[in-house]
Structures are given as structure tokens and as C-alpha cells.
Amino acid sequence: MRPHIVVDLRAQQLRWHSGTVQRCYPVSTARNGPGERNGSLCTPRGRHRIRAKIGAGQPSGAVFVGRRPTGEQYDEALAATAPERDWILTRILWLCGEEPGVNRGGDVDTMRRYIYIHGTPDSEPMGVPASHGCIRMRNADVIDLFDRVDCGTAVEIVAP
Q1: Residue 43 φ/ψ region, left for φ over 0, alpha for ψ in the -120 to 50 degree band, beta for the rest
Q2: Got the DSSP string for 64-126?
Q3: Catalytic residue list contains 118
């Protein structure tokens, strides 16, 4: 079996499978629940793949804006400057939908919606839907996952 990822929206878990090796990580997906439409702030369902890996070599807590590191390191003082911000930290796995009309193309395009698996402040809760659409992970977990996957790795987002 080829390495792949399953994100379970109900369980708020990400499972990475590679033959007999498996890892399970707690995540936080969209506060608005599942959905594919642009502007919905929902997490898209269905078959995806990792389109790009961004942030290799950056320190844990590195801040990203527009998929570029800003040179800032997340801390409480920085957090206080933007308390409502959905911080993108440490690593980014940019997802691309694989199902035309479901999560690819038109008003449902996962990649054009900038849906990522990414790090978030360790103070943010896991296991609870709270993001603006992306899949948030603990910084140590997203580094671990990032180092295990390649561009093209299959990602299935399910809402059983």
C-alpha cells in the first residue's frame, strides 16, 4: 500500500499510513464544519493530494504569510497583536483536490481556496473544530508528518 493520509473530520484526527507503520495525530479542522465552496470557511471533503511542501528547515513556530516565512517567531507578544488571526506556523502541506466539480475547479477548488495542513500555536485546542478551513496540527506533529510525506501523497478527508 502506498503511503497516504486520512483526515477524519468527526474524530478530529489525521492518520498517516505507510504499509505497517501508522501515526495518528489530533487535529483541528473548520469551525464551520465540512464544505467545499469558496468563502465557506469549511474544510473540503474527498480525495486530495499534497501539491506542495513549504517550510523545510524553518524553526518550530516560524510564522508564514502568503506561504512565505516572515522571519518572525510566534510568541505571546506577537499573538497579542492579532488575537483573532488563524496563525500558520512551522510547515505547510498545500492540498490540491482530485475530484472535478467536488473539490477541484470552479467554486470548489481546494488549492485556490488555499487549504493547508499546517502548524498552529500550541495554545490552540486540538480535537475541536476551530480553524478557518485548514487542518491545524501541533507544531511538533506537523514537522513529524512533513518529514514522512512527499508531494503527491494522497490525502482523503472524510466526514463519516
Answers
A1: beta
A2: EETTEEEEEE--HHHHHH-TT----EEEEEEEEE-SBTTTBSGGG-TTTTT-EEEE--TTS-S
A3: yes
Amino acid at 65: V
- What are the distances in angstroms from CA 91 to CA 41, 116, 138? 20, 10, 10
Whether 134 is catalytic: yes
**Exposure b/e, 46-77, CB count within 10 A at least 16 = b:** bbbbbbebbbeebebbbbbeeeebeeeebeee
> With a threshold of 0.85, does the pTM exceed it?
yes
CB atoms within 10 A of CB 19: 8
Catalytic residue among 17, 42, 118, 132: 118
Span 63-74, average pLDDT: 96
What's the CATH number for 4-158? Answer: 2.40.440.10
- What average pLDDT does the structure give for the chain? 96
Q: What's the confidence (pLDDT) of residue 2?
A: 87
Catalytic residue, from 17, 96, 134, 151: name it: 134
Mean pLDDT within 73-102: 95
